[in-house]
Prior knowledge:
Elements: H1 17-29, E1 43-50, H2 56-72, E2 76-83, E3 94-100, H3 103-110, H4 130-139, E4 153-155, H5 156-184, H6 189-204, E5 211-213, H7 214-228, H8 231-254, H9 260-275, H10 289-300, H11 305-318, H12 334-340, H13 346-362
Parallel strand pairs: 1-2
Antiparallel strand pairs: 1-3, 4-5
Helix pairs in contact: 1-2, 5-6, 5-13, 6-7, 7-8, 8-9, 9-10, 10-11, 10-13, 11-13
Catalytic activity: D-glyceraldehyde + ATP = D-glyceraldehyde 3-phosphate + ADP + H(+); dihydroxyacetone + ATP = dihydroxyacetone phosphate + ADP + H(+)
Family: Belongs to the dihydroxyacetone kinase (DAK) family.
Protein name: Dihydroxyacetone kinase
Amino acid sequence: MGIHNEPGVMRENIPSLESTVKRVLGMIFTPKNGMWHPKPGLRVALMVNNLGGLSVLELGIIVEDVVRQVGDWGIKIERCLQGTFVTSLDGPGFSVTVLQLDDELEELLDAPTTAPAWPRSIHGLATSAEAATRVIAKYTNGVDTDGREAGVKVASSLVEALLDSVAKATAEDEPKITHYDTLAGDGDCGETLLNGVGGLANEFQGDLVGFVDVGQIFRRAASTVERTMGGTSGAIYAIFLNAVANSLTGQALANPSADPQHLIRTSLKRGLDELCQYTPARIGHRTLMDALIPFVKAYSNGASVREAVSEARKGAESTRWMAASLGRASYVGRDRFAEEGGIPDPGALGVESILRGVEAVLE
């Protein structure tokens, strides 16, 4: 089941703890559609979470069995966290999370924090911004581009028109997106999308005069989306937009006379390449990438905006009967899809909705 009472994979009598743990770990460790999965010899951090209704004694027994069975898979547990982290009211259940470790992630897990529910046996109470700074520097390639311009200027009226059109398109599509996310997710995809678009509107309200730098627009958009959207989609959009901004700036500095449209096409492609280093999601995994990747590939290869948006629309529609490899939908029974005549991925629909707003202005 899901933490917001979403439908689970199946309903049955409660089996033994050993078989329950075996089934949970099987979902994590069994190879699926070429996706990453823990392999023997890997160093991992293990989190066993109390859904709210377990006693300390019950959780301890579960942790012991989880640790034992993870060891049977040949996985090396470097850190083990147990406690009440994400609850489903007072649900008497548990969840298991496995994170592949490297030296940096291990250091970050051990870093001090004031988060009240984090296990105090791991570290003390002091806060430190140093670790977070390293992560940010990593996905921005360690380049300080704040304040630098890409040299591609557009009229502020065009940016305002794009923001208004995207806001209109996403507002129209939100009920449909929310409906499908209620069926195959936790029901908040539409609201999350509107939060991000609303954040962008507030960010640029009354702030655009004359001609503005495209690179700075992308950079500010990334920061705003990261702050206002939340969730996995917010992180994906933020990394992509920030990578596009970095590429625009870097290319403009290297070749100030470059064609602006070529810069934008190339930067979208490089932004996608950068994003793919941080998410395993690709076409066919039933995520927003099923719409984003076709759009970027088509546009960067010379297609018009309309043609590229058409590819994104096809990509979103292709998810209707697609078996999910990632996210909540990967745990929803296929019978629910049959009942609804297929369920397109809400994240992919969100990308299509944004691009539809862009298309209305640029075509």
